[in-house]
Amino acid sequence: DSKLADNLRDTAKTATSSNKEMAKSFSKVALSIMKTGKSSARSAVIAIALMLAVPSLADAAQSYPDSLWNAGVQAYSDGQWDTAASAWESIIAAGCGNAEVYYNAGNAWFKSGEYARAVLCYERALRIDPSYSDARFNLEFAQSQLQDKIDEIPEFIFKTWMRKICYMASSNTWAVLSLLLFALALGLVFVFLLAPTSGKRRTGFYGGIVAMILCLVSLGSALWQRSDYIKADGAIVMKPVSSVKSSPSAGSAKDLFVLHEGAKVKILDDVGEWKNISLADGRQGWMQSSDMEII
Fold it and tell me: What's 261's DSSP letter?
């Protein structure tokens, strides 16, 4: 197990989160009281008390996830993997999870031997930031330790290339880049229209075409990542052994095959407590919802 842990990219990632929604709410209440125009001493005292409470509430909101993060880092440094994972999972449960938190939680779960939980965390980190190369590396390494080895159906080579390009940067980076390239394309159009010589007009024409093509590629990559983030059709099997049925029924349905914890499935449909799933190799069947967790 120590040899496996050495191969894991487990460098601690600095992450800080804050939740100031409560402070904003108190501030709005205080301002609304002050705007009512009532001169009563009671209203004034309430407004002042709420305004004074805003900074302390904001500090408390920030210190809570920070303290959990520091506790997780300390536990991870001490080799207390379960404690570290629990601390980072608490940050996620508080609604402050980001790619770095999921990544570190995945590392802690992996080192504690919870490979399925580690795969789930890495997948969620990549759902937030598909360009997270360390999370992708660790996901592939964790998947190599699973019992089920599922061979993917080869996809069209051009789609594979486009996916690799798409994952080179985050969706926000691609969106900003598309705007810059669009502005460049417009500038080159003006060069084409206003340049005094044919050589400069030619440069503006062909340069504008190239800039517009790169703009569309950047925009397409941003939209692709956004679409992957919105979709919730991926899941990880969390039950040690789960039977995949021919129909959504526990009694009369036939067992098609068995999946073990950590396997990734795609959800096609759901009926009650059952979900119609497919694997990367094309196999399909029905599983109970309680046997999996949505990425």
Answer: T
Q: Residue 244 region, left (φ>0) first, then alpha (ψ -120 to 50), else beta?
A: beta
Angstrom distance (rounded) from CA 286 to CA 269:
9
Global pTM value:
0.72
**The two three-digit tokens of residue 101, written as one number:** 């938190």
Of 167, 12, 153, which is closest to residue 78 (Cα–Cα)? 12
Alpha-carbon span 149 to 275, nearest angstrom = 22
- Secondary structure E strands in the chain: 234-237, 241-245, 255-260, 264-271, 274-278, 284-288, 292-294
For 214-234, b/e burial (b = at least 16 CB within 10 A) is bbebbbebbebbeebeeeeeb
- Provide the CA 6 distance to its chain's centre, in angstroms: 25
Whole-angstrom Cα distance, residue 169 to residue 204?
A: 28
pLDDT in tens, 104-138: 999 999 999 999 999 999 999 999 998 899 999 99
